[in-house]
Amino acid sequence: MTSTLTGTPSTAPDFSTLPTPRTEPEWLERARLVRTVLAADAAERDAAGKTPYAEVALLKDSGLVTLLGPVEHGGGGQEWPTAYRVIREVAAGDGSIGQLLGYHLLWFWAARLVGTPEQIAHVEAEATKQRWFFGGAVNPRDADVVIRDEGDEITFTGRKSFSTGSRVSDVTVLEGVLEGTETHVFAIVPSEQPAITFHDDWDNIGQRLTESGSVTLDGVRVSWAEAAGFRDKVFTPRVYNTLNVPTIQLVFVSFYLGIARGALDEAAAYTRTTTRPWLHGGQSSAVDEPYVIDLYGDYTAKLWAVEALADAVAQEALPIHREPDAVTERARGEHEVRVAAVKARATEVALEITSGIFEVTGARSTASSLRFDRFWRNVRTHTLHDPVAYKRREVGRFVLTDELPEPTWYS
Question: How many CB atoms sit inside 10 A of residue 101's CB?
Fold first, then answer.
């Protein structure tokens, strides 16, 4: 399978002339280059709401889609702490594209989550060499997709109301339940095929370029050999299989914080150049206004604090990811509690910053052409994914009773 997605923005550097990043600082610098390209026309692209083919091509050409891939196949060989920081950088330029990259990296990694050693090696080699872009049709709030056993193959049939990445993906991760059982099955399939219909019905107020519309599966055929983690139609579970939730929640945290950083940086640039001081305040420049200085200091301190917590939680999970067969239920549960804590704080701080920037940019900053509201719309849209109160409850119960969260689709 090869990619058919083209159209890198003309403002992007020619990444083919640049050396492949090898270290975390080099990958972060690559992400900053991508952020700069995206930020240049983010407001206009948000208004247009067009399918982000060019933006995905940018992620591919820059190499960011192979960040977690094996070095021997041309990948970055990086780990999750770096990936989360890269997602933050990209989201600071465009929240939608930060989400797309985050979900892509999650589904790229999903082979390690549930696959056999042979499947992991095959998927990571092919995905890295061919720079596949991953989407996913895995929404637990919908009815389960029905999987039927048809001998050497299985078929997926059903509908999901969300499928982030949809039309811009090369491959899509499917999940469903084997008919007559409670057995869940994951598989990676080509996105472009007659049995998959992506519906152009994503029309939400924020994250407008994430291609998160609904999808219909009409008997998508998959070999049993490609059913993730199965041998002779039997799946052997391990605790590591449940790391999908804390990992994706940290992906969420990453693009929430990235969007907040983008809002704060863009607001600061506007304040320096355009915001006028209050006519009765006695200041000649907005940057000398005491309330403006105070709010920027407050927002920045809060953002720095949550970024530091997010980085710490990501580092704490490294032993789990490095020794997946050794992770215990206790270690998994304690990690989920820490993730819940940072998810709660990131949600609150990102919402506060993205709505509060108008206090320091002034009335004229509400002009539709600037679309400063996109930062709040983006955060507000995705933070409704699951109620943050339940994240705080996980932390509170752990503190009071040492209760660990039960692994579910949301904890």
Answer: 30
pLDDT of the residue at 12: 85
* Per-residue pLDDT at 9: 65
Q: Does the global pTM surpass 0.85?
A: yes
Q: 367, 371, 372: which is closest to 357 by C-alpha?
A: 372
Q: Which pLDDT score is estimated for 3?
A: 43
CA distance 207 to 204: 7
Q: Which fold has domain 15-133?
A: Butyryl-Coa Dehydrogenase, subunit A; domain 1 (1.10.540)
Rounded to whole angstroms, the Cα distance separating 265 from 335 reads: 31
Reading the block at residue 277, the tokens are 């001081």
Q: In whole angstroms, what is the distance from residue 207 CA to residue 49 CA?
A: 9
d(CA 270, CA 263) in angstroms, rounded, equals 11
Q: CA 391 to CA 341: how far, in whole Å?
A: 7
CATH superfamily to which 239-401 belongs: Butyryl-CoA Dehydrogenase, subunit A, domain 3 (1.20.140.10)
Kindly tell me the sign of the dihedral angle through the C-alpha atoms of 82, 87, 93, 97.
positive
% helix, strand, coil for the chain, step of 5: 55, 10, 35
Domain boundaries, the chain: 15-133, 136-235, 239-401
In our burial notation (b when 16+ CB lie closer than 10 A, e otherwise), range 33-50 reads: bbbebbeeebbebbeeee
What is residue 149's predicted lDDT score, i.e. its pLDDT?
97
pLDDT at 6: 47
Which tokens belong to 199?
Answer: 């519906």
Distance CA 86, CA 67 (A): 9
Q: Which residues contact 393 (CB under 8 A, 6 or more apart)?
A: none
- Cα dist. 278→192, 282, 289, 297 in Å? 56, 8, 8, 19
**Mean pLDDT by groups of 10 residues along the chain of 411 residues:** 51 90 97 97 96 98 98 97 98 98 98 97 98 95 94 97 95 96 96 96 96 97 97 95 97 98 98 94 93 98 98 98 97 98 98 98 96 98 96 98 96 93
C-alpha 39/C-alpha 11 separation (Å) is: 11
Nearest C-alpha neighbor of 307 from the set 159, 132, 38, 89 = 89
CATH architecture of 136-235: Beta Barrel (2.40)
